[in-house]
Structures are given as C-alpha cells and as structure tokens.
C-alpha cells in the first residue's frame, strides 16, 4: 500500500456509521476505499472536504 495517494485518484469522501460511531474513508476512482482513522471530529471532516475540493478544482492536480 502506498503512503501517499495523488489527489487525482480520489473520487469522494465516504461516511459509515457503525454502533453510532462515524468512520470515514476516501473512495478512489478505481473503486477501492482507504480508511481514515485519524478523522474523528466534524471539524476534521470539514477540513478534509475543503482540501479535497481545493485540489480537485485545480486542473494542475487532475
């Protein structure tokens, strides 16, 4: 498994609730998922969404 993924390979952010605990992951364009255990709070999720939106909107990273 790679330590770093290019932004261009990320499709979207996914949220799954298991026993009332939210688990977040990123879904890659090839259909695979990567877990994000360090994302725990709603503020972390908002920061991640802003980062993904910023990089995906920039054609240099696509």
Tally of individual domains: 1
Structural category: alpha+beta
Which CATH class is shown? Mainly Beta
Silhouette: globular
Mean pLDDT: 78
Helix content: 25-40%
> What is the name of the CATH topology?
OB fold (Dihydrolipoamide Acetyltransferase, E2P)
Helix and strand sequence: EEEH
Distance between the termini: 21 Å
Q: Biggest β-sheet: count, sense, barrel?
A: 3 strands, antiparallel
How many β-strand runs? 3
Uncertain runs: none
Helical segment count? 1
Q: What's the architecture in CATH terms? A: Beta Barrel
> Widest sheet: strand order?
1-2-3
Radius of gyration: 12 Å
Strand content: 25-35%
What does this structure look like?
The protein is an alpha+beta fold and 62 residues long. The chain has one domain (7-61): OB fold (Dihydrolipoamide Acetyltransferase, E2P) (Beta Barrel). It has one helix at 42-57, and strands spanning 10-18, 21-28, 33-35. The protein has a three-stranded antiparallel β-sheet, with helices on one face. Strand 2 (21-28) and strand 3 form a beta hairpin. The chain is globular, with a radius of gyration of 12 Å. The relative contact order is 0.21. The mean pLDDT is 78.
């Amino acid at each position: 498994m790679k330590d770093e993924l290019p932004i261009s390979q990320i499709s979207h952010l996914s949220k799954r609730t298991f026993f009332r605990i939210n688990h977040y992951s990123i879904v890659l364009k090839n259909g695979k998922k990567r877990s994000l255990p360090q994302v725990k709070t709603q503020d972390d999720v908002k920061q991640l969404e802003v980062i993904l939106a910023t990089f995906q909107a920039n054609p240099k990273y696509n």
